[in-house]
Write a structure and sequence with these properties.
Helix content: 25-40%
CATH architecture of the largest domain: Roll
CATH topology of the largest domain: Chitinase A, domain 3
Number of helices: 6
Order of helices and strands: HHHHEEEEHEHEE
Structural class: alpha+beta
Largest sheet: 7 strands, antiparallel
CATH class of the largest domain: Alpha Beta
Radius of gyration: 21 Å
Oligomer: single chain
Number of domains: 2
Length: 248
Amino acid sequence: MKKNFLPTMAILSLIGFSAISCSKSKEPKTEEEKTFYSIGTMFGSRLIQLSMSDAEIDALASGLRDAAKGEKQKVDPMAYQQKIQEIFKSRMEKQAVDVKKKGAEFLENFVKKEGAQKTASGLAYKHLKEGTGPSPKETDMVKVHYHGTLTDGTVFDSSRERGKEVSFPLNRVIRGWTEGVQLMKVGGTTKFVIPSELAYGDTGAPPKIRGGETLVFEVELLGIEKAPAEAIVPGPAKSAPKVPAKKK
């Protein structure tokens, strides 16, 4: 999985909108205030992995205001490019370590308490309903229904909730899917617990999936389609796992 920790100035300028709300944010009242508050929440969600303090958020807000109003900047931002990169990298890595530890505990409990199996790669799975049809190959198109959650039960993506099954090439999704769905038979339903190294790695898929996050999927394999088709891959709409299975 690619580890792109280095934010561009364009990204930083966008996430800076989150700083509109300081340590003591006021309730938005007018439609314009609610609109700008919504912008802040959208871009501010990208900062979750930094675990910022109120003082740091206030400092970010100060820089945003000076830049937005065209006032003299109190520091030269270009001189802090290396520091920006270092902070993003170190804090994202730290959070990923903590998140992975909790995910590993969840996975082991799934194996021990629910009688799931674990593959050599670290993927854990349990067949909830045995299928009677064939098993797909890595090069096949598959049709599925799925429900994806974090280990705390938070839903991040679900074809079930959308009410529409999806088809996609099995070799173009996260590694946990590529390996796991091949263990299924058409007509079956399987629960997977996928460690981050087989999913989105330390980078995650913000804002819904943090770096190091272990993912839980219930997958129903509806069919195998060998003919090419327009595919929708499971995962957050903005960060769907589109890379080859061997590397993400």
